[in-house]
Automatic annotation (TrEMBL):
GO terms for cellular component: 6-phosphofructokinase complex. ADP binds at residues 21-25, 154, 185-187, 211, 213-215. Keywords: Allosteric enzyme, ATP-binding, Cytoplasm, Glycolysis, Kinase, Magnesium, Metal-binding, Nucleotide-binding, Transferase. Residues 3-274 form the Phosphofructokinase domain. The lineage of its organism: Bacteria, Bacillati, Bacillota, Bacilli, Lactobacillales. Pfam families: PFK (PF00365). This is ATP-dependent 6-phosphofructokinase. Homotetramer. Belongs to the phosphofructokinase type A (PFKA) family. ATP-dependent PFK group I subfamily. Prokaryotic clade 'B1' sub-subfamily. It comes from Desemzia incerta. Pathway: Carbohydrate degradation; glycolysis; D-glyceraldehyde 3-phosphate and glycerone phosphate from D-glucose: step 3/4. PANTHER family: ATP-DEPENDENT 6-PHOSPHOFRUCTOKINASE, PHOSPHOFRUCTOKINASE.
Amino acid sequence: MKRIAVLTSGGDAPGMNAAIRAVVRKALYEGMEVFGINYGYAGLVAGDIRQLHHNDVGDMISRGGTFLYSARYPEFATEEGQLKGIEQLKKFGIEGLVVIGGDGSYRGALALTKHGYPTIGLPGTIDNDIPGTDFCIGFDTAINTVLDSLDKIRDTATSHVRTFIVEVMGRNAGDIALWAGVSGGAEQIIIPEKEFDMAEVATKITEGREKGKKHTIIVLAEGVMNGNKFAEELYKFGDYHARVTVLGHVQRGGSPTARDRVLASQFGARAVDYLKEGKGGLCLGIVNNEIIASDIIDTLEKGSHRPNVALYKLNQEISN
């Protein structure tokens, strides 16, 4: 291939710009032309496509978000939308596409693959819920953002002997809650993948206070329920001086960590290698600290996200 393109889609994630940078710089190094598609699949169908040069990605490695922008475009789920996108790619002479994003973005890449268009998917989502990889671009930055908040919340929780319920993002996956909760020393972690008993939650708070604990921090994944609802249910078992903190979209922003920058750079460069060889229909991942490529159809249709059960068990054993 001599001419490729890159787009970002769905929710933004720190490190997306680093991945775009790697795609652009690696493609130019290999003597290829590279184009950027603005606003994800919506921009693809609209033909909002521009050629990218070396200087276009200068200083992008440290910036959060995505300078190619992103947008929701449910119409791309239809065959009509997909064929319009392919028509635009052919119009610009683009022979292969790199898609950076989460589950919805991967579904779009899967559709293009089924139409015979060479596409490589890079996992970019703070939710860390993409099958075929241990970690996604943006996840490490997000959990460090949450960790910083947990450390600050603990100070005020201790000062007032309170229970803090901290609601974090993640859609239907509990990875942000799990990793941030363990690293932040949370007393309890509530995730969608594990059932919980509110009576047991209340009992653990009481037991902690009887042992002299001055605070309780509960990290709640949004896929379970919202923080205020959780607090209402908890109050049915007693007054635990609970306060709710919803961290929200602050988790998506910020300069990416070194880990996310390196991972994004590795993914972006490897994607170009595959497209240069004429290969598509793949999604990249990191498994056991090794960059791998998997068939995108098999990965999405047969794979599923799996929580780290060992981490969940660890927190139960050491939190109190």
